[in-house]
Specification:
- Helices cover 72% and strands 0% of the residues.
Length: 167
Amino acid sequence: MTQELRDLRNSILQGRYEDALAIVDELEGMSKQAILRNIQSYLKILLIHLIKNQVEKRLTNSWVASIRNSVREIQKINIKDNKKSYYVNQDEWECLIEEEVIEDAIADASLEVMNGAYNQFQLADLVNRQELMQKAVELLLLTYTYSPKELPRIVAEKLIQLPGAEN
């Protein structure tokens, strides 16, 4: 990025404004990709814990904390600086999960589910992807409706409905 900033400075100083605008566009794209990677990291953590819950039919306090934290961090990262628009819109979560994150989440969850009893391919056969997607999107959509202060309570209310939460 340092080189891009030098090029941008030189383009402005030399009056090459079209080149400068092209560099700005490139920098914006790089920034958005970094933000999307960050969102995907938290999304993967969210999915791993939802997969563990789905397969093991239980919910530990640490899983609850990880899910809640992931949803909160996604909310913080996803909103743009103008506080009015998002990097990932409400109708884009399923596509993002299906295309980019779910296979990695299953692979990583296979190391943890039932203490690693299943390899990633066996676990992939056990996971109900439709149900997983529904629960993940349901939690993610809360980030558009509730304030950062309200969100943890609302997420907790949703998690109480998961299998094993009664214990």
